[in-house]
Amino acid sequence: MNILFVCTGNLNRSPMAAALLHKFLSRAGRDDLSIRSAGTHAFEGSPAPANAIEVANQAGIDLSPHMTQPISRELVDWADRIVVMSPEHIDFIEVNFPDALDKIEEMASFRVGARPGDSVKDPNGLSPFHYRQYFGELMEAVQGYFSSLQNIRS
Length: 154
Known about the structure:
It contains five helices and four strands; from the N terminus they run βαβααβαβα.
Protein backbone atom coordinates (compact mmCIF):
# COMPACT_ATOMS: atom_id res chain seq x y z
CA MET A 1 0.00 0.00 0.00
CA ASN A 2 1.18 3.51 -0.85
CA ILE A 3 0.45 6.36 1.58
CA LEU A 4 0.87 10.02 0.64
CA PHE A 5 0.87 12.65 3.40
CA VAL A 6 -0.17 16.12 2.22
CA CYS A 7 0.15 19.55 3.83
CA THR A 8 0.55 23.02 2.35
CA GLY A 9 4.28 23.60 1.83
CA ASN A 10 5.62 20.06 2.42
CA LEU A 11 8.02 21.65 4.89
CA ASN A 12 6.81 20.52 8.31
CA ARG A 13 3.64 18.51 8.86
CA SER A 14 3.59 16.05 5.97
CA PRO A 15 7.31 15.17 6.04
CA MET A 16 7.23 14.83 9.84
CA ALA A 17 4.13 12.60 9.62
CA ALA A 18 5.75 10.47 6.92
CA ALA A 19 8.95 10.11 8.96
CA LEU A 20 7.03 9.26 12.14
CA LEU A 21 4.93 6.60 10.41
CA HIS A 22 8.07 5.15 8.84
CA LYS A 23 9.66 4.96 12.31
CA PHE A 24 6.60 3.21 13.82
CA LEU A 25 6.42 0.74 10.93
CA SER A 26 10.15 0.01 11.22
CA ARG A 27 9.83 -0.68 14.92
CA ALA A 28 6.96 -3.08 14.16
CA GLY A 29 9.07 -4.86 11.54
CA ARG A 30 6.79 -3.84 8.71
CA ASP A 31 8.12 -3.01 5.28
CA ASP A 32 4.92 -3.54 3.30
CA LEU A 33 3.94 0.14 3.07
CA SER A 34 5.51 2.91 0.99
CA ILE A 35 5.27 6.44 2.33
CA ARG A 36 5.80 9.80 0.66
CA SER A 37 4.82 13.41 1.31
CA ALA A 38 3.91 16.45 -0.79
CA GLY A 39 2.42 19.92 -0.51
CA THR A 40 -0.51 21.62 -2.17
CA HIS A 41 1.52 24.82 -2.54
CA ALA A 42 5.06 23.44 -2.26
CA PHE A 43 8.03 24.52 -4.30
CA GLU A 44 10.31 21.79 -5.58
CA GLY A 45 13.48 21.10 -3.62
CA SER A 46 13.36 23.24 -0.47
CA PRO A 47 14.80 21.74 2.73
CA ALA A 48 12.85 21.34 5.96
CA PRO A 49 13.20 24.33 8.33
CA ALA A 50 15.84 24.13 11.08
CA ASN A 51 13.14 24.00 13.79
CA ALA A 52 11.49 21.00 12.08
CA ILE A 53 14.83 19.22 11.77
CA GLU A 54 15.62 19.91 15.44
CA VAL A 55 12.28 18.71 16.85
CA ALA A 56 12.40 15.61 14.63
CA ASN A 57 15.98 14.88 15.79
CA GLN A 58 14.75 14.95 19.39
CA ALA A 59 12.34 12.14 18.42
CA GLY A 60 15.09 10.16 16.72
CA ILE A 61 14.11 11.14 13.17
CA ASP A 62 16.44 12.67 10.60
CA LEU A 63 14.56 15.18 8.43
CA SER A 64 17.73 16.76 7.03
CA PRO A 65 17.57 14.84 3.71
CA HIS A 66 13.97 15.98 3.06
CA MET A 67 13.31 18.14 0.02
CA THR A 68 9.87 19.55 -0.70
CA GLN A 69 7.74 18.51 -3.62
CA PRO A 70 4.36 19.66 -4.89
CA ILE A 71 1.48 17.24 -5.12
CA SER A 72 1.18 15.96 -8.67
CA ARG A 73 -0.93 13.67 -10.81
CA GLU A 74 1.83 11.05 -10.58
CA LEU A 75 1.80 11.11 -6.76
CA VAL A 76 -2.00 11.03 -6.60
CA ASP A 77 -2.09 8.04 -8.94
CA TRP A 78 0.69 6.33 -6.96
CA ALA A 79 -1.15 6.74 -3.64
CA ASP A 80 -3.68 4.25 -2.31
CA ARG A 81 -4.36 6.63 0.59
CA ILE A 82 -3.89 10.38 0.81
CA VAL A 83 -3.67 11.67 4.38
CA VAL A 84 -4.29 15.42 4.62
CA MET A 85 -3.44 17.77 7.48
CA SER A 86 -6.33 20.26 7.07
CA PRO A 87 -9.73 20.54 5.39
CA GLU A 88 -8.35 23.03 2.85
CA HIS A 89 -6.14 20.23 1.51
CA ILE A 90 -9.28 18.23 0.76
CA ASP A 91 -10.64 21.26 -1.12
CA PHE A 92 -7.43 21.51 -3.15
CA ILE A 93 -7.54 17.83 -4.08
CA GLU A 94 -11.24 18.03 -4.92
CA VAL A 95 -10.59 20.88 -7.38
CA ASN A 96 -7.39 19.49 -8.91
CA PHE A 97 -7.78 15.71 -8.58
CA PRO A 98 -11.51 15.03 -8.06
CA ASP A 99 -11.07 11.34 -8.85
CA ALA A 100 -8.90 10.99 -5.71
CA LEU A 101 -11.52 12.04 -3.15
CA ASP A 102 -12.19 8.44 -2.13
CA LYS A 103 -8.51 8.06 -1.14
CA ILE A 104 -8.53 10.92 1.38
CA GLU A 105 -8.18 10.52 5.13
CA GLU A 106 -7.87 13.38 7.63
CA MET A 107 -4.83 13.10 9.90
CA ALA A 108 -6.46 15.07 12.73
CA SER A 109 -9.29 12.53 12.93
CA PHE A 110 -6.85 10.00 14.37
CA ARG A 111 -6.24 12.09 17.51
CA VAL A 112 -8.13 11.31 20.68
CA GLY A 113 -11.11 13.65 20.99
CA ALA A 114 -10.95 14.76 17.36
CA ARG A 115 -13.88 16.65 15.86
CA PRO A 116 -14.89 16.85 12.20
CA GLY A 117 -12.96 19.58 10.43
CA ASP A 118 -10.04 19.60 12.88
CA SER A 119 -6.59 20.41 11.50
CA VAL A 120 -3.09 19.39 12.42
CA LYS A 121 -1.60 22.76 13.36
CA ASP A 122 1.17 24.17 11.19
CA PRO A 123 4.20 25.46 13.12
CA ASN A 124 5.79 27.10 10.06
CA GLY A 125 7.38 30.40 11.03
CA LEU A 126 6.58 29.97 14.73
CA SER A 127 8.85 29.51 17.74
CA PRO A 128 10.66 26.30 18.72
CA PHE A 129 8.09 25.97 21.53
CA HIS A 130 5.27 25.76 18.95
CA TYR A 131 7.24 23.26 16.88
CA ARG A 132 7.57 20.99 19.93
CA GLN A 133 3.91 21.41 20.91
CA TYR A 134 2.54 20.80 17.41
CA PHE A 135 4.95 17.91 16.84
CA GLY A 136 3.53 16.25 19.96
CA GLU A 137 0.00 16.65 18.59
CA LEU A 138 1.09 15.29 15.22
CA MET A 139 2.78 12.33 16.89
CA GLU A 140 -0.47 11.50 18.69
CA ALA A 141 -2.36 11.56 15.38
CA VAL A 142 0.26 9.44 13.61
CA GLN A 143 0.16 6.90 16.45
CA GLY A 144 -3.61 6.69 15.97
CA TYR A 145 -3.15 6.30 12.23
CA PHE A 146 -0.51 3.62 12.75
CA SER A 147 -2.93 1.73 15.01
CA SER A 148 -5.55 1.86 12.26
CA LEU A 149 -3.07 0.14 9.91
CA GLN A 150 -2.28 -2.75 12.22
CA ASN A 151 -4.69 -5.17 10.57
CA ILE A 152 -3.91 -4.05 7.02
CA ARG A 153 -1.22 -5.78 5.00
CA SER A 154 -0.49 -4.90 1.41
